[in-house]
Amino acid sequence: MSGTGTQAVDAGGSSSTPPAASDGGPGEASHEIGLIPCVAFCVGTMIGGGVFTLSGLAVDQSGPSAIIAYLVAGAVMLLSALSFVVISSRSQPGDSGYAPLGDILSPGWRFVAMWGFYLNAVTCIAWVLLSFGSYMNEYFVGAMGQVSLALIAVAFIALLNLGPADLVGRTETWLVGLKVCILLVLVGYGLASIGAIQWTPFVPEGAQLAKTTALLFTAYTGFNVVTNMAGSVRDPKKTVPTAIVLSIGISALIYVGIIVALLASGVSPLGESGLGKAATELMGSWGGPLVAFAACVSTLSAANGDVLGASELMIRLARQGDIPPGVGRISRRGHPVFSVTLAAGIGALLIAVARDGQLIISLSNVTAIFAMLVVNVGAFRLALRKWPGEGVKLPGGIIIPTLGFLAAAVQLPSLGLEAVIVGAGMTAVGYLMYLFRHNTMFAGDLAEMERMIHELETPLARALRRKRFPLGTDP
User: Fold this and answer.
1) Per-residue confidence band for 474, with pLDDT thresholds at 50, 70 and 90
2) How crowded is the C-beta side of 145, counted as CA atoms within 13 Å?
3) For the residues of 127-174, what is the DSSP string, one character each?
4) DSSP letters along 317-341, please?
5) pLDDT tens across 195-207, in order?
6) How far apart are CA 108 and CA 14, in angstroms?
7) What domains are there in the chain, each with its CATH number?
8) pTM score
9) Which of 172, 383, 184 minimizes the C-alpha distance to 298?
10) What span, in angstroms and rounded, lies between the C-alpha atoms of 307 and 169?
């Protein structure tokens, strides 16, 4: 594969080491992705259903102790995120952050980790858009049902990701900024009424704290966007861990603020659209529609981010030789048509068939946990080898990867046997695609794929590097 200056993929899915990134000669990327867009995109992906759907359910299940559930879920995620850091910090320029798993474990396990996060992204599309349908139905379009509105939103997000490439990035930038501003207004009202909160009993009788913590796990999975792009990030050994820790920390603070606002409202039960009810109580009659509008914006933003993340994973899987090249093919206009169509199709199927938001949430958590277990095993193996090569080293040797593995694994029973079985089945179906990765029915141009990755011209890379921020910063 000549002419791209990037690594070549052999028939077995392994790869040769590419040359170091240059300063931007012909056909090469002139710049890399910085810290601010990485954090902004991660937070934008996290702050979707994690606030507008899960927060009300969390308070209903656990009362004031929902704050603990959010913080514990963030801490558990951070343990696994540190394992992601040590793996991704060993990726070569232009590679996916998961690429080193192929050498540390095997190409097959690398596929399982990436496929797990692909499934997490597409299932998240379903449940955040069900949340969109719920808010739209309750506040704006009562004549249409939640499921119908969610299916329309799936079609809209798919068309957006098959439209002008710059529009996707600009849309995501404004959606993230708008929803965070509205949420901060609500948090301010909640803090002003904090004296009205009944803190006792902190853990109400019948509270399901372990189940709530497991439910909230997926509220922090947006950090994997940075991991996937590690090879295209500026100074990845510093930027990637900083972006992950900042993203989880910022999201956790917003989540806690929202729980305080929900508790201050005194509304019970809250349900999936509880944030709107709480806003009406705290802010007056205008508060509910405003927050419902933010919820619709936020869930669309989160779904858009999930489609971008899923497409990037599919492109990277194809480039590594882990799936047939044609599955990750990018059209001449820069669209990963197959990936977007597949993600939208799976999302629509889950919405139409499951219709149960909590089952879909549990399924998204299960698939993410499968991926994190593999990554923790990879970090554990690096620790046993005394952290060979250049990259981040964790203090305590095997302690953090072991804790990350155990903390993720113990969440599975709380998510339910049905979700675990379905998640395992979806993982197995994906593995069949890995086994038939050399099938010539899905041929593709790997050279063109490598060029677009190297020059930061994949949809996610364009969305990240073309962000513009309100204060005038231009990463």
Assistant:
1) very low
2) 6
3) HHHHHHHHHHHHHT-TTS-HHHHHHHHHHHHHHHTTS-HHHHHHHHHH
4) HHHTTSS-GGGG---TTS--HHHHH
5) 999 999 999 988 8
6) 11
7) 35-461 (1.20.1740.10)
8) 0.82
9) 172
10) 12
Residues β-bridged to residue 3? none
Q: Which amino acid is at 138?
A: E
Nearest to 134 by CA among 75, 49, 34: 49
Query: How many CB atoms sit inside 10 A of residue 341's CB?
Result: 14
Q: Which of 293, 253, 309 is nearest to 124 (CA)?
A: 309
What are φ and ψ of residue 468, in 5° steps? Answer: -125, 140
Q: Tell me, what DSSP letter sits at residue 223?
A: G
* 142 DSSP assignment: T
Q: d(Cα 305, Cα 163) in Å, to the nearest integer? A: 15
Distance CA 151, CA 145 (A): 10
CB 145 within 8 A of CB 277: no
Close Cβ partners of 113 (under 8 Å, ≥ 6 residues apart): 98, 101, 371, 374, 375, 378
Name the token pair of 349: 């199927």
With vertex at residue 319, the alpha carbon angle to CA 313 and CA 323, rounded to the nearest 5 degrees, is 75
Amino acid at position 195, single letter: G
Whether residue 110 contacts residue 249, with contact meaning beta carbons closer than 8 Å, is answered with no
Cα separation of 26 and 135, whole Å? 49
Closest CA to 457 of 30, 16, 2: 30
pLDDT tens across 231-271, in order? 678 887 788 888 888 989 988 999 999 999 999 999 989 88
Q: Are 129 and 154 in contact (CB under 8 A)?
A: yes
Q: What angle do CA 320, 324, 329 make, to 5 degrees?
A: 85
Helices 337-353 and 107-139, interaxial angle, to 10°? 60
Distance CA 61, CA 212 (A): 7
Structure tokens at 298: 């936020």
User: And the tokens for 179?
Assistant: 């929803």
The 10 Å Cβ neighbour count of residue 86 is 23
